[in-house]
From TrEMBL:
Substrates-to-products reaction catalysed: a 2'-deoxyribonucleoside 5'-diphosphate + ATP = a 2'-deoxyribonucleoside 5'-triphosphate + ADP; a ribonucleoside 5'-diphosphate + ATP = a ribonucleoside 5'-triphosphate + ADP; dZDP + ATP = dZTP + ADP
NCBIfam families according to UniProt: PRK00668.1
Reported function: (Microbial infection) Catalyzes the phosphorylation of dZDP to dZTP, when the bacterium is infected by a phage that produces the substrate for the synthesis of dZTP (2- amino-2'-deoxyadenosine 5'-triphosphate), which is then used by the phage as a DNA polymerase substrate. Major role in the synthesis of nucleoside triphosphates other than ATP. The ATP gamma phosphate is transferred to the NDP beta phosphate via a ping-pong mechanism, using a phosphorylated active-site intermediate.
EC top class, as a word: transferase
Descriptive protein name: Nucleoside diphosphate kinase
Amino acid sequence: MEKTFLMLKPDAVQRKMIGRLVQRFEDKGFELLGAKLTRMTMKQAEIHYAEHAGKPFYGELIDFITSGPVFAMVWQGEQAIAMSRTMMGKTNPLEAAPGTIRGDYATDKGLNVIHGSDSPESAEREIANMFEPGELLPSGPPIASRSNGLHIDASGN
Ligand code: GTP
Ligand code: MG
Protein backbone atom coordinates (compact mmCIF):
# COMPACT_ATOMS: atom_id res chain seq x y z
CA MET A 1 0.00 0.00 0.00
CA GLU A 2 1.52 3.30 -1.10
CA LYS A 3 1.33 6.60 0.77
CA THR A 4 1.26 10.05 -0.77
CA PHE A 5 1.25 13.62 0.45
CA LEU A 6 -1.43 15.78 -1.15
CA MET A 7 -1.83 19.43 -0.33
CA LEU A 8 -4.58 21.82 -1.31
CA LYS A 9 -2.80 25.09 -2.01
CA PRO A 10 -3.87 28.51 -0.65
CA ASP A 11 -5.93 29.24 -3.78
CA ALA A 12 -8.02 26.09 -3.22
CA VAL A 13 -8.60 26.86 0.47
CA GLN A 14 -9.51 30.45 -0.31
CA ARG A 15 -11.93 29.28 -3.03
CA LYS A 16 -13.63 26.92 -0.50
CA MET A 17 -12.77 23.82 -2.50
CA ILE A 18 -11.61 21.56 0.35
CA GLY A 19 -14.77 19.46 0.52
CA ARG A 20 -15.14 18.74 -3.17
CA LEU A 21 -11.44 17.93 -3.62
CA VAL A 22 -11.31 15.57 -0.63
CA GLN A 23 -14.44 13.95 -2.07
CA ARG A 24 -12.66 13.07 -5.31
CA PHE A 25 -9.97 11.09 -3.50
CA GLU A 26 -12.48 9.34 -1.24
CA ASP A 27 -14.59 8.47 -4.29
CA LYS A 28 -11.52 7.07 -6.04
CA GLY A 29 -11.04 4.63 -3.17
CA PHE A 30 -8.05 6.10 -1.36
CA GLU A 31 -7.97 6.22 2.41
CA LEU A 32 -7.18 9.29 4.44
CA LEU A 33 -4.51 8.72 7.12
CA GLY A 34 -4.37 12.32 8.37
CA ALA A 35 -5.20 15.90 7.45
CA LYS A 36 -4.89 19.42 8.76
CA LEU A 37 -5.50 23.04 7.86
CA THR A 38 -2.26 24.88 8.52
CA ARG A 39 -0.08 27.65 7.22
CA MET A 40 3.33 26.53 5.92
CA THR A 41 6.23 28.22 7.67
CA MET A 42 9.00 29.65 5.50
CA LYS A 43 11.22 26.75 6.58
CA GLN A 44 8.59 24.13 5.66
CA ALA A 45 8.07 25.82 2.28
CA GLU A 46 11.82 25.81 1.57
CA ILE A 47 12.08 22.11 2.46
CA HIS A 48 8.96 21.25 0.46
CA TYR A 49 10.18 23.03 -2.68
CA ALA A 50 13.96 22.47 -2.26
CA GLU A 51 14.20 20.94 -5.74
CA HIS A 52 13.07 24.23 -7.28
CA ALA A 53 15.53 26.52 -5.41
CA GLY A 54 17.23 28.84 -7.89
CA LYS A 55 14.57 28.54 -10.62
CA PRO A 56 13.09 31.79 -11.94
CA PHE A 57 9.67 31.12 -10.37
CA TYR A 58 11.04 29.97 -6.98
CA GLY A 59 10.43 33.27 -5.13
CA GLU A 60 6.89 33.46 -6.45
CA LEU A 61 6.31 29.82 -5.50
CA ILE A 62 7.45 30.31 -1.87
CA ASP A 63 5.48 33.56 -1.53
CA PHE A 64 2.34 31.87 -2.82
CA ILE A 65 2.54 28.67 -0.78
CA THR A 66 3.07 30.66 2.46
CA SER A 67 0.42 33.28 1.59
CA GLY A 68 -2.44 31.56 3.40
CA PRO A 69 -3.59 28.27 4.89
CA VAL A 70 -3.08 25.00 3.04
CA PHE A 71 -4.93 21.72 3.62
CA ALA A 72 -2.26 19.06 4.06
CA MET A 73 -3.24 15.39 3.73
CA VAL A 74 -1.74 11.92 3.77
CA TRP A 75 -3.57 9.28 1.72
CA GLN A 76 -2.92 5.61 1.12
CA GLY A 77 -3.92 3.40 -1.79
CA GLU A 78 -2.62 1.14 -4.54
CA GLN A 79 -0.25 3.26 -6.65
CA ALA A 80 -1.57 6.31 -4.81
CA ILE A 81 1.29 8.52 -6.06
CA ALA A 82 0.86 7.97 -9.79
CA MET A 83 -2.93 7.74 -9.60
CA SER A 84 -3.33 10.97 -7.66
CA ARG A 85 -1.05 12.78 -10.12
CA THR A 86 -3.22 11.52 -12.97
CA MET A 87 -6.27 12.85 -11.11
CA MET A 88 -4.51 16.21 -10.57
CA GLY A 89 -3.63 16.72 -14.24
CA LYS A 90 -0.60 18.39 -15.79
CA THR A 91 1.20 21.22 -13.98
CA ASN A 92 0.35 23.67 -16.73
CA PRO A 93 -3.46 24.14 -16.71
CA LEU A 94 -3.33 24.65 -20.47
CA GLU A 95 -2.23 21.03 -20.83
CA ALA A 96 -4.34 19.61 -17.99
CA ALA A 97 -7.18 17.53 -19.41
CA PRO A 98 -10.80 18.36 -18.58
CA GLY A 99 -11.92 16.03 -15.80
CA THR A 100 -8.64 16.40 -13.93
CA ILE A 101 -8.49 18.74 -10.94
CA ARG A 102 -6.23 21.29 -12.61
CA GLY A 103 -8.08 20.83 -15.91
CA ASP A 104 -11.37 21.62 -14.22
CA TYR A 105 -10.33 24.31 -11.73
CA ALA A 106 -7.06 26.04 -12.67
CA THR A 107 -6.07 28.62 -15.27
CA ASP A 108 -2.67 29.64 -13.88
CA LYS A 109 0.56 27.65 -13.70
CA GLY A 110 1.34 28.98 -10.21
CA LEU A 111 -2.16 28.97 -8.71
CA ASN A 112 -2.79 25.36 -9.65
CA VAL A 113 -4.89 24.21 -6.69
CA ILE A 114 -3.11 21.07 -5.53
CA HIS A 115 0.27 19.48 -4.88
CA GLY A 116 0.96 15.74 -5.01
CA SER A 117 4.18 13.84 -4.28
CA ASP A 118 6.04 12.59 -7.36
CA SER A 119 7.86 9.58 -5.81
CA PRO A 120 7.87 7.48 -2.62
CA GLU A 121 11.02 9.33 -1.49
CA SER A 122 9.35 12.73 -1.98
CA ALA A 123 6.26 11.48 -0.17
CA GLU A 124 8.31 10.43 2.89
CA ARG A 125 10.12 13.76 2.99
CA GLU A 126 7.00 15.85 2.43
CA ILE A 127 4.98 13.96 5.05
CA ALA A 128 7.76 14.30 7.65
CA ASN A 129 7.94 18.03 6.87
CA MET A 130 4.27 18.61 7.71
CA PHE A 131 3.13 15.89 10.17
CA GLU A 132 4.25 14.40 13.47
CA PRO A 133 4.00 10.59 13.39
CA GLY A 134 1.29 10.71 16.07
CA GLU A 135 -0.97 12.77 13.82
CA LEU A 136 -1.32 9.94 11.28
CA LEU A 137 -3.10 6.62 11.29
CA PRO A 138 -0.72 3.76 10.57
CA SER A 139 -0.67 2.76 6.91
CA GLY A 140 -1.56 -0.80 6.06
CA PRO A 141 -4.62 -2.86 5.21
CA PRO A 142 -7.80 -0.98 4.27
CA ILE A 143 -9.08 0.70 7.42
CA ALA A 144 -12.57 -0.78 6.99
CA SER A 145 -11.10 -4.29 7.23
CA ARG A 146 -9.21 -3.64 10.45
CA SER A 147 -10.75 -5.23 13.51
CA ASN A 148 -10.54 -2.04 15.52
CA GLY A 149 -10.84 0.50 12.74
CA LEU A 150 -8.67 3.35 13.87
CA HIS A 151 -6.21 1.17 15.82
CA ILE A 152 -7.34 2.67 19.09
CA ASP A 153 -7.82 0.08 21.80
CA ALA A 154 -10.47 -0.02 24.50
CA SER A 155 -8.25 1.81 26.98
CA GLY A 156 -8.05 4.71 24.55
CA ASN A 157 -4.40 4.18 23.61
P1 GTP B 1 3.49 20.10 -7.47
O1 GTP B 1 2.62 18.93 -7.21
O2 GTP B 1 2.95 21.40 -6.93
O3 GTP B 1 4.93 19.86 -7.09
O4 GTP B 1 3.43 20.29 -9.05
P2 GTP B 1 4.15 19.47 -10.17
O5 GTP B 1 4.92 18.32 -9.61
O6 GTP B 1 3.10 19.19 -11.21
O7 GTP B 1 5.15 20.55 -10.76
P3 GTP B 1 6.64 20.89 -10.34
O8 GTP B 1 7.08 20.11 -9.16
O9 GTP B 1 7.47 20.87 -11.57
O10 GTP B 1 6.49 22.41 -9.92
C1 GTP B 1 6.06 22.73 -8.59
C2 GTP B 1 5.11 23.89 -8.63
O11 GTP B 1 5.82 25.04 -9.06
C3 GTP B 1 3.97 23.76 -9.62
O12 GTP B 1 2.84 23.11 -9.12
C4 GTP B 1 3.63 25.21 -9.91
O13 GTP B 1 2.77 25.71 -8.91
C5 GTP B 1 4.97 25.89 -9.78
N1 GTP B 1 5.55 26.11 -11.09
C6 GTP B 1 6.16 25.22 -11.91
N2 GTP B 1 6.56 25.82 -13.03
C7 GTP B 1 6.20 27.11 -12.90
C8 GTP B 1 6.34 28.27 -13.73
O14 GTP B 1 6.89 28.20 -14.82
N3 GTP B 1 5.82 29.43 -13.23
C9 GTP B 1 5.21 29.51 -12.01
N4 GTP B 1 4.73 30.68 -11.56
N5 GTP B 1 5.07 28.46 -11.22
C10 GTP B 1 5.55 27.29 -11.66
MG1 MG C 1 6.32 18.56 -8.00
